[in-house]
Amino acid sequence: RRDYKFGRQLGRGSFGVVHQVERKADGGAFVCKEIVLRGLKSKAREEASQEVELLRRISWGSDYIVKYVESFLERESLHIIMEFCEHGDLSGFLKAHAGEPLREAVVWRFALQVGMGLHWLHNNRILHRDIKSLNVFLTAAEDARLGDLGVARVLRLGSSFASTLVGTPYYLSPEMCEGKPYNEKSDVWAYGCVLYEMCTFQHPFDARDQMALLVKIVSGKYRPVPDGYT
To answer: Of 17, 71, 204, 223, which is most buried with the most CB atoms under 10 A?
Structure first.
């Protein structure tokens, strides 16, 4: 921690706080995700360690995954230093552009970049399991990076399906809604929901409560994207 100057808080998760930090040695800008381990059950500690190991192993293999820099333990907290994506997340980008349809070239650019990041994960037998616009990050050059692998699961050899229900309800696949085993196709479904969101500024499936939302997702019925997109 002494190698970094901590700046503004960027976000807070179930057991993690994210800050923008500056590396004192060279002034480089990064993000620090601090995960408090004190009082956490063994499963939560395992999830934290899993995120670090995943980042270390795969982030440098693709230009479209948020880069892992280093990690360290201090004061019963795990600190993960990651690439800083200056333009925030895709959800914020869409809110800032609400009311003006995104140019198709922009949609294609982000779609291809996120798709290549996802392809890299799947080639390494990793499910992301929480793909959403909040987990797509944009660099200063407005290149898209797929991030937040906190709930990612490495598929063990011989086991191509996972069964634990995780993810954000708007992006859940039909098989996840029905409690069935799922594989990388559920990530592709969520990816499709993000593409729809870029074209319409809305989720493909929405409802007043979660049960009604799950029913809509399983039905597979949604409004088509605007005619302006090919």
So the answer is: 204
